[in-house]
Amino acid sequence: MHRFETVSSRLLGLFTAFTLFACGGPAAEELSGETRPTTPEGTSVDTMPLSSPKPFDSGETRPLELAPASMEKDAVDLRVRSESPGGQTSLVAGSYSTSATNSATVNTANVYFNLRAGETLTVGTCGVSGASGSGDTYLRFYNPSGVEVAISDDACGGVLSNLSYVAPTTGTYLLRAGCFGSGACNGTVGYSIGGALFSYSASATNSATVNTTDLYVNLSAGQTITLGTCGLSGASGSGDTYLRFYNPSGVQVTFSDDAGGSCGALSNFTYYVSVSGTYVLRSGCYSSGACSGTVAYLLQ
C-alpha cells in the first residue's frame, strides 16, 4: 500500500511539472535552465510596450499678461461691415430686402471685406454656407479703388448669385447686393475667405507658451474661423506644430496639437466667435522640439 502511494505521488508530480512546462510556467524555466528577462520592477520583457506613447497634454495654460484687446490697431482686420439700404450698419454680412436697385447700382446693401493680397473670397446668396435668397438677386464687387472687378446675376442653376475673387492687392473691397432690373428680392449674403497668413520656424517653445510667433486678428461675433498648419489651402508644416488661440481678455479658448488623420502631428482647429474683438494666435512646437509651418485660415 505504501509503495502504491509513492508511485502515485511521483506520477502526479510529473503530470504537474509537464503541465507547467507546456504553459510556460516556473517549471518550464527550471527544467530548461533558462529564465525570462525582467525589468527592475519584475515585468517580463515580452509584456513591455514597444514604445512610449506621447505624454497626455491637457492644453491648459495661464491667461496672457498682455490682453490682445490692447493690440486692436496693429491687428489684421478680418471683420466684415455691412450697410443696409436703410443705412443701418452691422459687423456681419447679413440679410437684406430691397427693390428698384437697377441691377445693384442703387438702393443696395453694401458689405465691406478686408482682404490681403492672394486671399480668395467666395460670396453669394447661394452656394456658400449660410447663404439664401428669393427673387432675382444681383451682386457687384469693387476693388479698393472703386473699380468693379466681378459681378454675379444668375448662379447656382437659378436666379440667385455667387462669385469668387482672388485679391491681387491688400485693401478694403466692396460688395453691392441688390436685385436684377427694377424687381424686388431678398437675400442672406454668405461668404468664405481663405489663404495663407504667415510662415514661422521655431524651437523650444514649451508647447507654444514661449518663443512663439504671434498674430493678432480683429474678429466679429458670429464669424467662424478655422486656422491650421494643415487641412487648409496654403497650409503646410514639418515637425510637431502647436497652436493656441486667446480671446480679447487673454484667456485661451482653444488649441491644437495633433490634428490627426492626414494632418498627423500638424495643427488645425475651428472656433466660433461669440464676442467681437482682438484675438491672438500663438504658433509654436510641441514641448521643446523644433518645427516650422505656414498657417492658413478660412473665415465664414
Automatic annotation (TrEMBL):
- Keywords, alphabetical: Signal
Q: Per its record, how is this protein called by name? A: Peptidase C-terminal archaeal/bacterial domain-containing protein
**Polar residues composition bias: residue spans:** 35-50
Q: Where is this region: Disordered?
A: 29-61
Species in which this protein is naturally found = Pyxidicoccus fallax
Q: Which Gene3D superfamilies match?
A: 2.60.120.380
What are the boundaries of the signal sequence?
A: 1-22
Write down the superkingdom of origin.
Answer: Bacteria
